[in-house]
Amino acid sequence: MSRSTAFCDGFTITVPKDNRQDAFESIRGVIDGLGCTLVNEGCYRSPEGATFLYGNRGSVAWFQAKGRFVAALRVRKLLNEFLASFSLNPHRVSSCDLTVDEYVDFPADRVAGVYDLAHSGQISFSRKALNHRQISRVMGPTLYDDTGKDTGTVYLGLRSAEVRGRVYDKTQERANEGECIGLTVRHEMTVTGKMGITLRDVAEPESCFYHFWPEVLLSRPSGVPDWSPTEGGYSVERTERLPAQRLKQRVSGSADLGEIIALAQSCGPEGMRMLHRLIDERALSEGRCLGSA
């Protein structure tokens, strides 16, 4: 039975509301590096369709990256730099989703086995085992084979819990989206900031995952260090990008700009000249707005 290393599949970071602009400016270089475009106030989208969300809630500002956006950061080797940007200001990791993919021959049987273990009182994220009220599942017939077995997701812990998990048939989830992947069961856990998680746990989640994840479900691999809450800051060398570099990245990576250019070209021989004129007029208009601010 093989499995992936632990990885972060999403996180939310909060900062004092007064520090929102400083935090945002710190991460702008990375957002530009991904080629993201502003969809609306509060949402950026990468060329792969991944979204990065941000906003205000009470006295704090929040920044949220989910699975596809975090994956894009990892692929581009920008995750550490993105996290380091937050370390420059007061911040708190308010929640993160830590994940391990398990590769099995029969995902439906594995999911059913997890549900049985939970109902027999053998699963806990603390000293106390989960009770029946804290366990639920959503099931349906397998889409990727003709066995007719039920498969789906087992939820471990209430949504209000500081540590909660779910085990689900990843092959089924992808098949439901028309995608075919290898036989995979995903073990996913959400840990909230009250447990003392840090940016390090987002970047290097192995210790935190196996500290909380029930060993009856996945045994702790040898060599995984012990975990302790709030074990210190997280630092990494940051890459400073000049405005000209960021501009080049935004222009070369913007899907919206590509569509605008194609639209201009469809207007005929004078289309690109029109586009340049419209950009100049927009720049002049923005300049007037800045001057009157």
Describe this structure in words.
With 293 residues, the chain is of the alpha+beta class. The protein folds into 3 domains: 142 residues, no CATH class; 78 residues, no CATH class; 39 residues. It is globular, with a radius of gyration of 23 Å.
List the defining traits of the structure above.
11-stranded antiparallel sheet; 10 helices; 293 residues; 3 domains; alpha+beta; globular; single chain
The helical percent reads 25-40%
| H/E element sequence | EEHEEEEHHEHEEEHEHHHHH
- Give the strand tally: 11
- Structural class based on helices, strands and sheet pairing: alpha+beta
> N-to-C terminal Cα separation, in Å?
62 Å
Strand content: 25-35%
Mean pLDDT level: 88
Number of domains: 3
> Biggest sheet, open or closed, and with what strands and sense?
11 strands, antiparallel
Radius of gyration: 23 Å
The number of distinct helices, counting runs of at least 4 residues, comes to 10
Shape: globular
Low-confidence stretches: 231-238
Summarize the structure.
By secondary structure, the protein is an alpha+beta fold. The chain has helices at about 20-35, 65-75, 80-85, 105-120, 170-175, 200-205, 205-210, 245-255, 255-265, 270-290; strands at about 1-5, 5-15, 35-40, 45, 50-55, 60-65, 90-105, 135-140, 150-155, 165-170, 185-190.
Present the secondary structure layout.
Layout: E1 2-3, E2 7-16, H1 20-33, E3 37-40, E4 43-45, E5 51-57, E6 60-66, H2 67-75, H3 79-87, E7 92-103, H4 107-119, E8 135-141, E9 150-156, E10 163-169, H5 170-176, E11 184-192, H6 199-203, H7 206-212, H8 243-253, H9 255-265, H10 271-292
Antiparallel strand pairs: 1-7, 2-6, 2-7, 3-4, 4-5, 5-6, 7-11, 8-9, 9-10, 10-11
Helix pairs in contact: 1-3, 9-10
